[in-house]
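Q: Start with the shorter request: fold the first protein.
A: Done. Sequence, then structure:
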Amino acid sequence: MNISIIGSGVYGIAVAKLLLLTNENVTMWTEKENINEIEVPNHVILTHDYEESVKDADIIFVLTGTKFVKNILESIKTYIKPSAIIVLGSKGILENGDTPLSLTKKILNNPCAVLSGPTFARDVAALDPVGFTLATDDYGVFETLKEVLNVAYLEYNSDVDAIELLGSLKNAYAIGSGIIAGLNHGYSTSCLYITRIINEIQAILTSLQYDPNSIISLAGIGDLVLTCTSTESRNYTYGSILAASDFEKKKKYLQETTVEGCEALTSFMNMFKEKRIDAPIMTMINEISEGKNDPQTLIGLILN
């Protein structure tokens, strides 16, 4: 099985290490000019060339930031085999509402799957026991991917749109967890918050005619708990900065760091307005992020 990874960031390299445990033919595309500076596992073939990276691939993992996905798909579409499986590991939603999955369906006709779950790159790279949700409407695709990722725990889900959406929702809600931590509240308050947002997420999924029980998954509760309780999460850290009302530090952090949840908030506000979805907690997080409300109001909301 020939495998291609698009993206040589820390997560792409971590997944490469995981794949190499049971697969020999792994090629990685990188945009970085100096290939020698990239610390990749032995036996991974590095290339700048899209054609070289995907032409023989049976499975292509797209592991870049969401804002780069459209350009990548358009760059590889003339080189990939019609049967190649596209695995989307990018978690995000663009301001116009596009997601990696919707872009893939517009640009390619290949079978695809969404890979999501509670997996920090550091843990995957350390080969810690980890688990993923693999969402696809083709169980045969799941079985194929299970063969190449058989060192991890994999769960199947056919509600592909819901699983992908959960990956973006948890980023936005993790900002709220950071706000609570930044206000010096304890784990009991955090658990109250997480329970409340699980209810809100289920309501959002229902409004979009997705299965609300999709949240009971590694991509749902699993990823939500990881992102909402760890200082390794950039979204959580951003929330703690908001709690301090330190606008200079906020500005600097956003300039230096990609905060997926902050980028997603605008997209979700547009979506909720268009589809008339009531999501008071996320709306409050957005208002706090924009400086239109005091961080302490989030506590009053979750107690209401």
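Q: Next, the second protein, separately.
A: Sequence, then structure:
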Amino acid sequence: GHDRGRNVHLWGLVVDRFAAMVIMPLDVIRTRLVSQDPGRGYRNAGQGLLLIYRQEGVRGLYRGIGPAMLQIAPLTGGQFMFYNLFGSVAKRVHGLPTEAQLPPGELFVCGGLAGLCTKLLVYPLDLAKKRLQIQGFAGSRQTFGEHFVCRHMFHCLAQVGRREGMRGLYKGLLPSLLKAGFTSAFYFTIYDTLLVLFNSQSNV
């Protein structure tokens, strides 16, 4: 049981990393399309990906891959850890046994809190990823003031911390927290509800 759970978790990390590698160019072009000036930059995602490849090579399509990869393990493991923690607390509060199933409303709350806590932990990495994705794109962002320049993830985090303080490492946190909280809440609620449903049907 324990070994099987560990193997499932490890394979999950492998799959998540592979998926991150595949979709990384789409993440880069999304960040650039959102941050470019009107009338500058790329006309659409397809043209943008082609231009990035021609002008910056494969490296340009994978800017920010370091912090993106580093986020995966704490995001995956952290969500389940916090979800189980909050679920255990809720069961103790209601005097329920460990194997009992919480109602959907409480699953939703536990899942949401798990998403919030995990996002708080990894958010500076997410910020570094987005800052790295706009490197080499200064010409299309003239109205955004001084262009932030950094060489790699550690340099990026150090620059943000030195110039903007700890607060700078958490710029844009609120919408990211809301997204992470609701995504995690729906995920765990649907997952646990369907799991109980399938188990009950298999035992019939």
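Q: Describe the second briefly.
A: The chain has a mean pLDDT of 87. The first helix runs from residue 2 to 35.
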